[in-house]
Amino acid sequence: MRILEHPILGDQPSRKKVTIDYEGKKIEAYEGEPIAAALSASGVMVFRRTKKFGEPRGISCAIGQCTDCIMKVNGIPNTRTCVTRVEAGMTVEEQR
């Protein structure tokens, strides 16, 4: 789900739709939006699992201060997806 109309910010400007690859699946996203927002809008809530107990983690702070949203993006591990912008054709994988 994405916010298309906001009571204070108003209507959102139109943006270019692109696709990203998440775990082998094509996900529709808007170019320039945070990766975490695109994944959440597509129903993906688990971005990584804790090392010790394998507990699921997803968006927590959404400002790049914690590491709950880190994922492997274009082969680069530990990428904070809440502050990394979507680019067409990028590959995103759960952090294991």
Protein described:
The structure is a single chain. With 96 residues, this protein is mostly beta strands. It has one domain: Roll (Ubiquitin-like (UB roll)). The protein is built from 1 helix and 9 strands; from the N terminus they run ββββαβββββ. It has one helix spanning 35-41; strands spanning 5-6, 10-11, 17-22, 25-30, 48-49, 56-57, 70-73, 76-80, 91-94. A 5-stranded mixed β-sheet has the order 4-3-9-7-8, with helices on one face. It is globular, with a radius of gyration of 14 Å. The two termini are 26 Å apart.
Proportion of residues in extended strands:
25-35%
What's the overall average pLDDT, rounded?
Answer: 91
Fourth CATH level, the homologous superfamily: 2Fe-2S iron-sulphur cluster binding domain, sarcosine oxidase, alpha subunit, N-terminal domain
Report helical residue fraction. Answer: under 10%
Q: Low-confidence parts, pLDDT < 50 over ≥5 residues?
A: none
Q: Oligomeric status of the shown chains?
A: single chain
